[in-house]
Design a protein that fits this description.
This protein has 384 residues and is of the alpha/beta class. It contains 12 helices and 7 strands.
Length: 384
């Protein structure tokens, strides 16, 4: 059967955004160089140009100090609860970059030195600059854009998605994934015809970007049928004696009625994201939920890639459900990944199968024809 029959209907590699690569900062440097070159080529007199430049820079520093002063007017009422009773902690929180004061002093001094001796003009200019900055604050024009907020949250790793991904890894995946292959090996010895290809001896983790997690996979897609449970792992965790961890093995039927088998489950933290978007107290919109779901996938992918003990034990399957209902959409997504795992070694070494566009999601350029394990694998001929 050709892989074309269950290839995902959308270019899913485009669903997950890559980490921002600092192009905005490089654009700043480029525009700064172009601006300086244009100013130099304009042939304007040096003294007036320097005076105007230092004044504008001074006005910007005044704006920063005024904004910090306004925030400080609120924070002084929260010294005990937010700043441990320290005024200096509150001041540093409102004005975190201490060099603003120094820059204001330097630019102000330079402007005075370049001034033609009209003190009244200096006072008028500083007053107008202060009024303009206060007007900007009053109108809310100083607020960061949505892109800036997103970038700051991602860099500080304070998004909901970061916490959920780390909790999912530390509290669950780090415990169960190193045991997955052993459980499947035991099952394969008892049932040699079910899990014939060791390349699929992984936990397949479904990441629907809609966060709509179905508790019963058989109801989500009739081509997916529960087979059995793998060997349980019993541990004492967080005060609970004999806590049980287990995975379910499913049979997936393709269009030719061929049966495929794999361990598959949803990423359960997505249920929290979905519940938050349904709760008014969380104030979590559908757009924010989608952004957090994508960031959850990317963060989890980065965490697992850095985990040597989990290498080669998982397969992340992120997807966006189609607008129109498709009866067997989910089984098609899983089958595509199973087909890839069955053929990835043959595709690299023999070239007998055409390479299909990669559909596994990644925050960097992925090549799904390469084995997920860090260790080299021999060619196999027992997959069929």
């Amino acid at each position: 059967m050709s892989q074309e029959s269950w290839r995902p209907s959308h270019p899913s590699a485009l669903l997950i955004p890559k980490a921002r690569a600092g192009r905005a900062q490089r654009a700043v440097y480029l525009l700064l160089a172009l601006g300086a070159a244009a100013l130099y080529l304009s042939g304007e007199p040096l003294a007036p140009t320097a005076r105007s430049l230092t004044f504008h820079f001074t006005a910007l520093q005044i704006g920063v100090l005024l904004k910090g002063t306004c925030y400080l007017a609120e924070e002084i009422f929260h010294l005990q609860s937010r700043h441990h009773g320290s005024f200096w902690r509150a001041l540093n929180a409102c004005l975190p970059q201490r060099w603003h004061g120094l820059m204001l002093l330097v630019c102000g001094s330079a402007y005075v030195a370049l001034l033609d001796g009209d003190g009244q003009l200096l006072g008028l200019h500083l007053g107008l600059a202060s009024l303009c900055q206060l007007l900007i604050l009053a109108l809310g024009l100083h607020k960061p854009s949505a892109v800036e907020v997103s970038e700051m949250s991602e860099k500080s790793k304070q998004n909901v998605a970061h916490g959920l991904a780390w909790s999912y890894y530390i509290g669950y995946l780090k415990i169960v994934l190193p045991r997955v292959k052993k459980s499947m090996e035991e099952f394969s010895r008892a049932n040699p015809n079910v899990l014939a290809c060791s390349e699929t001896w992984k936990l397949h983790i479904l990441v629907p970007l809609s966060c709509d997690v179905c508790d019963d996979l058989e109801k989500a897609d009739s081509n997916i049928q529960y087979l059995t449970d793998l060997t349980e792992t019993t541990l004492t965790r967080a005060g609970t004696k004999k806590r049980v961890y287990k995975h379910s093995l499913y049979t997936i039927r393709d269009k030719d009625n061929k049966l495929w088998h794999c361990a598959v489950e949803y990423a359960t933290p997505l249920q929290s994201l979905y519940a938050m978007s349904q709760d008014e107290c969380a104030a979590f919109s559908r757009e924010e939920r989608l952004e957090q779901a994508k960031l959850f996938y990317r963060t989890l992918e980065e965490i697992l890639k850095g985990s040597k003990e989990c290498a080669g034990t998982y397969r992340l399957i992120a997807y966006e459900e189609p607008g129109e209902a498709e009866t067997h959409f989910l089984s098609r997504e899983i089958l595509w990944h199973l087909w890839q795992q069955h053929h990835e070694e043959y595709a690299v070494c023999e070239g007998n199968h055409p390479r299909a566009p990669s559909t596994t999601l990644d925050s960097t350029d992925l090549n799904l024809q390469i084995s997920a394990s860090d260790l080299p694998h021999p060619l196999r001929s027992d997959c069929f």
